[in-house]
Amino acid sequence: MMSKAAPKFYDVDMPIRSFVTKRLIGVKSESSVQEAAEKMVEFSTGSLIVIEDDEVIGFLTDGDIKKKVVAKGLKPDMPVKEIMVEELITADISSDIKDVLELMAEKNIQHVLIEENDDIVGIVTFRDLIDIERQKLETYISRE
Amino acid sequence: MKILHISDTHIGEKDHYNEESLRIALKEIEDNDINMLIHSGDLTQDGNLKYYKKAREIFDEIEIPYIIIPGNHDKRSGGLSLFKEYFGSPNGVFESQDAVVIYVDSAVPDTDVGRVGMVKYDMIKEALAENSSKPIKIVVLHHHTVPIPKAGRERNVLSNAGDLLELFLKADVDLVLSGHRHYPNVHRIENTVFVNAGTTSDKKTRYGDINSYNLIQIEENRLKVKTKRVDGSKKEKCFPRTDKRIFYEFGEKIFRVAHLSNTFISSSSKFLQTHFFNALKIINSLDCDLAIHCGGIVEEGINQNYELAKNYLDKFDMPVIYTPAGRDINYLGYELFSEYFGKMVQSYDSEDILFQGVSSAQYDSPEGYIGETQREKLFEKLENSKPTFNSVFLHHNILPIPHAREKGLLEDSGDFLREIVNKKIDLVLTGTSSHPSAMKIGDTIVVNANSMSSVYQRSRYGNSFNVIDIYEKVIVVYEINSLWGNRKILGVWERNNLKEV
Fold first, then answer.
1. Which of A7, B25, B102, B454 has a CA-to-CA distance to B270 between 20 and 30 Å?
2. Does one domain contain both B106 and B153?
């Protein structure tokens, strides 16, 4: 269980709705792992939604590509479908930030898909949440 | 859900108040099975007792739930106390099973300007959070959040409109209802529809218009706004409730443009040299076809800053085009800008893509202004050149920017914005108030850039610039941190996908 004390910037009891990236980059299930990796580089994203017949059928992170393909010395020409994660871990768009952070910790994941009325409508990543604190670091190093 | 939206009734004497018009509007309740009546302020002409009593009599006849908020006229003559006595709280939250309506008094006593103070801002935020799962979310304010056309100088947009706009979009508000300007207008920004009512029963109308009101119908997948004049004529707009959110087909990449602003180059410590040179390196490595500097090139328009700026900005590998901010033309800047960076109005014009600059800066003033003549010339050029992709860039913002009081907003933004949207200009780039934002209004994507290299910036993510990738089917806007180069997507949109359903 995570501590209830969160960085003071976050309104921990606010719905995650305001923090959701409501745009998702996807890849077709028959695309190759290499094509998926190219998309991740092109759009500077660590995860992709996997699409088949206009439906979301899975999820793929850069970690999956590292673990399931590159580290095993496999060629990245297999379809994305073979290495994607089929079980989608989701949170409702009206959940509190606290609940989403707890879900990330419990499942040991850094990306949570966000649902509204049974549709995937966005994503929240751990990086999005810690990015908010970046400016403090920046101000710190830019002092002259 | 069916709403009758009336506004600016100005109940008072016959020389300006037309009760017959109000009666025509109220008759819609029965004729159209309306579920709720919303009055977005200026119920009375000047907030005095006689008119509040008259208004009370009229509203006593209403048999459906209704919401009335005060406008600036209702608060005249100490009218707010009377408003409370006769109509209850000027702020509140109405909840039904499917919907929440948050209504807030935005009028500042004895002035025409609008403001939602911090307490009320938090009230809206909390109410939206508590009602996050309600399928329909509506906010009512007397003053407008988005500039209104035919209103002359834009002086009455809510002073913290940028914060409210950000809040509404983040919280997925469906509908924002306002009045005040006596001119009916509808804009859709992302998935939020901003509806301004004309005056329902005051003789003071704009542009030769007559009294009007709005009939709004919210269904599961669409939202319809019908603006009806009292002579029975009507105009209807219909919008999908949500746009596409998952993108996987992009087509070929056609063009990449770096979009930067407020570099504020100078020899002072407020200019962050490391940020500038890191950003320069990143932009040069990104294979951009063009860079657009939306003004705020130098900290002030003096010779030593311009010399330095020219020296630094010449290090970009791609062509750079510029538009000035007020501070670029301060002091000797008006002459120095042309001497070092060329024409005041610049453009990039290829066979199928046009980036057209607009000069909005004024001497010694943070306020922007385009003017009728320049606007006419601009749209004439845009119409005649007819490339497949039309873009306009200027320094001042045409939509409110978060965390900034609306001083940078273009004075004539209402008319300019309306024309941009009507003409379906693909992209507008601006660079004021040092906060990044990107949103789609109608079919047009409007992007503002943060300060790339000045301590004066307003983003939690630090100094940044934007990169815009134009694909065959899609436009992607990134914000890139000047110092570290981290990239995040500000938005992805289908090109001209807003279809009326």
1. A7
2. yes
Q: Which of B98, B128, B132, B474 to mutate to test the interface with A (most CBs of A within 10 A)?
A: B132
- CB-nearest partner of B129 from A14, A45, A142: A14
CB-nearest partner of A23 from B172, B247, B484: B247
Which chain B positions have a beta carbon within 8 Å of A121's beta carbon?
A: 242, 245
Give the residue on B whose Cα is nearest the Cα of A144: B269
Contact assessment for residue B205 and residue B33, using Cβ atoms and an 8 Å cutoff: no
Which residues constitute the domain of residue B118? 2-240
B11 vs B22: CA distance, rounded Å: 9
Helix, strand, or coil here: A125?
strand
Interface of chain B toward chain A, CB-CB under 8 angstroms: 129, 132-133, 170-172, 242, 245-248, 269, 272, 274-275, 455, 459-463, 476, 478, 481, 483-484, 486-489, 491-492
pLDDT at position B406 is 63
Number of C-alpha atoms within 13 angstroms, CB side, residue B140?
29
| Contact list, A44 vs chain B (CB under 8 Å) | 478, 487-489
Rounded CA-CA distance B225/B234 in Å is 10
Shared-domain flag, residues B352 and B484: yes
How many folded domains does chain B comprise? 2
For chains A and B, count residue pairs whose Cβ atoms are closer than 8 Å: 76
* B131 and B171 fall within a common domain: yes
Q: List the CATH number of the domain containing B487.
A: 3.60.21.10
Determine whether the interchain pair A121/B463 forms a contact, defined as Cβ–Cβ distance below 8 Å.
no
Question: Mean pLDDT for each consecutive 10-residue tract of chain A (144 residues)?
Answer: 48 80 95 97 94 94 96 96 95 91 92 93 86 62 52
Question: Nearest to residue A46, comparing CAs of A20, A23, A25, A68?
Answer: A25
The answer to whether residue B185 sits within a structural domain is yes
Beta sheet of B2-6, edge-to-edge order: B66-68, B36-39, B2-6, B212-218, B222-229, B234-240
E strand or H helix at A1, and its extent? none
ipTM above 0.85, yes or no: yes
